[in-house]
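ugh ok so i messed up the first submission bc i forgot one of the chains. this is the corrected input, ALL of the components this time, i swear. 330 residues overall. if the numbers dont match what u have on ur side tell me asap before i send this to the collaborators (the ones from the other lab, u know who)
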Amino acid sequence: MEDMEALPVRFPSRQHNHSSCVNKLLGDAEEECRRQKLRFTEHRRKVLEIIASSHKPLGAYDILEQMNFSGRRQAPVVAYRALDFLINLGLVHRLNSLNAFVACMAVGEDHTAQFLICRQCKNVGELNSNRVSERIEKDAVEAGFQVDQQLVEIIGICYECAESG
Amino acid sequence: MEDMEALPVRFPSRQHNHSSCVNKLLGDAEEECRRQKLRFTEHRRKVLEIIASSHKPLGAYDILEQMNFSGRRQAPVVAYRALDFLINLGLVHRLNSLNAFVACMAVGEDHTAQFLICRQCKNVGELNSNRVSERIEKDAVEAGFQVDQQLVEIIGICYECAESG
DNA sequence: ACTTTTAATGTAATATCGTAACAGTTTAAC
DNA sequence: GTTAAACTGTTACGATATTACATTAAAAGT
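and heres the new structure output, hopefully the right one now
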């Protein structure tokens, strides 16, 4: 008999209130940085805030556009540096099929991120199924391959979009 | 009890003879084009030949470099057009984590491609496990998500590289 | 055979995504 | 306070991919 525990799925609903996500994530970030003695600088805070305010993936240059505090346009590398930092901390994920970035919806939960990408509303959720990651690990090992990293992106239609046609 | 059939794994061994791969793939391509009444033009043949001659993924511009027959340098769009065609035919796969392309190793076998990417030797194999794709499908559906396309890339160390340290 | 339609090519320009290099500044550690 | 490490500012550039449009070649219809 297979393990049938409920999946920890997170797909953002339409009526979803983003500001609470943002606050939660900023809090998590601050705490994590304190714990690891890392610096949560202005750029990093700002980039995380921008990403967390959208459940649609943002490109690095989209983020950059929203970084002109002081009217000054920042160089691309500024966004990429902050993104690298946030990704290493597990607060942000990169979607390789879109060259874009989303905030993590399961911070601190030790997951191999698997993404559900709705090609209609463009929202992105996390499936994060242990059954999937374990299946991949087992089958790869059986094939003589030692897995370091899994990259799973699932493209389709989310529940709300399917409902509303 | 779970399905324990053998996996149809393909990871290119080091002593592998590429020229037979190339010929097989060109043959498959010709046949498929005849069947679907599509044109297997010079560019398309050449691009497929270039990709099939390497089990390491090639970038579009790598391919382009090998396309200077007649000494003339081709425009990028030439490579991208041929690649689109070959990908639609299922003869070539795109690796999103590398922005690169590999020849399909399981033409005509109706598979959801899952890639094994060795970060040491850079070779790429296909896992193509139905168990994995079914697990993803089931868990996504359970999460209310309708799957159109799966993208699975597994980064790690292949058997031969693990052996030789 | 000739016309019409569709598909593929040639060519130039440009958009989008990402990194290297290095000098200067701030912060933390001693 | 001095030193070492991390972060920032800035410029330049490299890598990846697409748009647009004129031209040519192939297939389909008559």
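quick check: Residues 111-165 of chain B form a domain with the Dna Ligase; domain 1 fold (CATH 3.30.1490.190). that seems consistent at least. Chain B has a mean pLDDT of 91.
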